[in-house]
Structure formats: C-alpha cells, structure tokens
Hints:
Strand content: 5-15%
CATH architecture of the largest domain: Alpha-Beta Complex
Amino acid sequence: MAYELGQLLEAMVAAGPPLAIETATAIARTTFGVAGRIDRLTGERDENFRISTAEGDSFVLKISHPAEDEATLSLMTAALLHMEATAPDIVCPRVHRALNGQTLVHFSDDNGQARTVRLLGWVPGRPLRDADRSSLQRRGCAQLAAAMATGLRGFRHPAAARPLIWDLANFDVVTTLLKDLPDLPARGFISDFASAYRAEVGYRLSDFRQQVVHNDLNANNVMVDEADNATVIGVIDFGDMVETALIADVAIAASAQVTDPSTALSDVTEFTLAYHRANPLLPDEAAALNWLIAARLVTDAVIPSWHRAHNPDEVHYARVDATYIERRVAIVEQLMHARIVIPF
C-alpha cells in the first residue's frame, strides 16, 4: 500500500512534556506493584524508565506518547506475547501484567493528557553499537535475525499493515524529505542514489515474501554479552514492527554490521550467508539485498537529520555530521556496484 508523506510523518512528532520521575515512580508502584530506583532512558516517542528493585530485578516502564495509536501499542504487546509463547529461547522484553491483569493501562498525565503505560522486562547486555565486532558476533546476529523472522512468521495483527516511515517500502517517500534539508551533506548524491534505487528495485518490494517483522534490528537494539562481545544475547525495541517484505528486515539487520567502508561488503556477505543458512532466502530477494542495505544506510542519515531539524531540542537521534555521511556514501557506493553472492 502506498502512503502519503503526511501519514508517514504522523509517527515522527516530538516527545511531549516529560513526565515527572515522581509520577512514573507512583505509576510503577500503584499500577504494577513494582518499586525501586528509577532512571530515565531515551526514547523516540515513548517515555522510558528503568526500574531497578532491591531484589536485583530490572524493568522498563514505558509511557506512550499522547498521540500514540492504541492499535499500535496492542500490536507491540501482542507480538511480544507471541514470541514468548512460540519462541521462548529468544531473549526479548517480556510483558508484565498490571495488578488488574491488563497489559496496557490508561491514565491521565500531569497535564491531563490521556496516556498508556506498559511494563516490560529488562534485557541485559551491551548494545551492539558499543561492542567490539567479530566474525562470530556477525554470525550470531544473523542467527538471531533469522530466528526472529521465523518466530514472527505466523503472527498476524490488524495494526501490522501500518504507515511507518522506517519501512523500506516507503523509501521513495523518505527521499522527499530532502527538500527540507538544503544543507544536508551529499544531498545530491542521495538524490541520485534514490533515482538509481528506483530503477533497480522500485516498487518491487510488494512482490517479495511479506510478513510481520521486527524491522529495527539495528546496532542500538541488538544486545551482546558485556564480558564476551562475540556472544549475542537478544533484542529490544519492537516499536517499528510492521508487515513488509521479509528481505527488508534482513537488509536492516545487515546494515547494522557495517562499521568500516573497507570491510562493508565482506561483513554484510558473511552476515547474509549465515542468515541464509538459518532461514533460506529466495534468489530474487538476494538479488535486491545490496540495494536495500544501501537504502537503509541512506535512511539512517535522512530521517534523523529531518527529525532534528524540525525538533531541535530532541536528543534521541544523534546529530548527523558530514563525516558520518561521507562514510555512509562510501559504503553505499560500494554496495551499488556489488552483488551479495549466495549459493542456491
């Protein structure tokens, strides 16, 4: 389904006025019966708080944005419950019910706005972005991504087919944001890439296998062992879940493996081969993968730049500077002229 830019940007609003720590503490105690030290975390739309109890347990209290759609919150919760039931070996946040037995609880915040609160389990470890990289780790990330896709294969939800700007099916719309970013480094290159991408992949994503996917297995959301960074523990943040092309999910996870232009192609190839062994790809999917990985790398520069330009006080997205974009451009150029070879 094609979406208008306005529909896709509805999910890109800035966070609302922050909830007081005292209010979050009271909600955790009275709604879920959980008490302990509470620390504010970052979040694109949700307000997130880590609660550390005296018993050594940790939880994440998630307070929805006032504009968040109830169906979307239901999607994320249902997906986590599905994973717990069908793929319990995959480490991801576990849903904790409120004292009244509900998974989603409504309340009015300090400003009288309707909000929804959830409590999830804490996933330990270090984010992939802060970890030393290795071949063993890449293969572990591939196995996790493949297991996630397999676990979600039978999952259905009415809100899964939703307008989401981070869905690679909407890449053509993402590049229209360039008109609002006249000073973005490599703006001309990105525009040219979008034209080449359109010719190579175009709107063919709808022809590939479709299912609900995590859609955000990036280096912030994959967790590795603190002591042994080669060991992949699990995954967090189901906020970008969507029903889309399976190969788009593979591309996003593969893009998280890219840290150096000189090894980009070999790293994504190693990841893809390991993924293919665990969850076989189809030839037409593999043929488009290099372009989809490149499109995600471009998206990672354009959307955060647009968001910070329109919400200058927000710090969830790191600032995108010329050096960051230059490295991305070097990798994208390499991927545009290479094919990830998979033996079928």
